[in-house]
Each structure stands twice: as structure tokens, then as C-alpha cells.
Amino acid sequence: MVRLYVVLIVAAVVFSIYAVADCAFFDRSRVRGLSRGWWIVVIIFVPIIGGLLWFIIGRGRAGRMSGGRTRTLAPDDDTEFLRHLGSEAEQDERIRRLEQELADLDGDDGGDKPDGTAGTAGTERQRPDGPESPGESGPSGRPNA
Known about the structure:
By secondary structure, the protein is mainly alpha-helical. It is 51% helix and 0% strand.
């Protein structure tokens, strides 16, 4: 029976030391109920009950906000998400304008294409519809020559 008491006392001391260390190194913004110093006093002077109270009440969850409740935002309500969407749209528009400027610079000596974009007439490479021309691969995958 004495061995059981020794084992229980050792377990209580280890649990209390762990609870004090956990409380001491825990993030200050997530401590609930009492301040960190008071939690350490409670854990030390009420060994097992204080440690249990610390783990049940004192430790705040990581997902909690300062208001004490978790809050999930829909994408329409998240201003950071909406701001990011606006910058993507601006970036896409800028890329489209730069591509148009590059196309205009490439076709600086020709007329307009039928679709309204500037370019040189007749410089587009015509590809045959079938693999009959020399150099094109046939149905077997080997080039016709």
C-alpha cells in the first residue's frame, strides 16, 4: 500500500511541475480567467485541483479571438480576400495591356488584321490540315520524307 502512495505522490508532483511549466511558458494572450502569475500560485498551493483547473479553464484555444468566440468569415465578408481579388483583376488588366502593346510593337509595319488587331499581313505561318507535307509526322509517328 505504501508503494501505491509513493507512486501517486510522484505522479502528483510531476503533474504539478508540468502544469506550472506549461502555465509559465504558455502564450500570454491565450491565458483565460486569472493572470499567469495567479494561475501559477493556484497550481502550486492547490496541487492537483489547481493543475486540473489550469488545463480546463486557464488554457485558451489557439483558434479563439479576443472576443472569446471563434468567427468564420465568408469570402464576401473577408476584406483581405476581397482586396486580393481587386489586385488580381488589376494585375490581369495590366498584363492584357502589356500584351497588346507588345503585339502592336511586333506589327509596326503592317496593316490591321480582320479582327481589328494590328499586325503584318501575310506573315502568319500556314499549317496544313494533314500530315501530308514533308517533315510532318504521319500516323506512325515517323516523319514523311
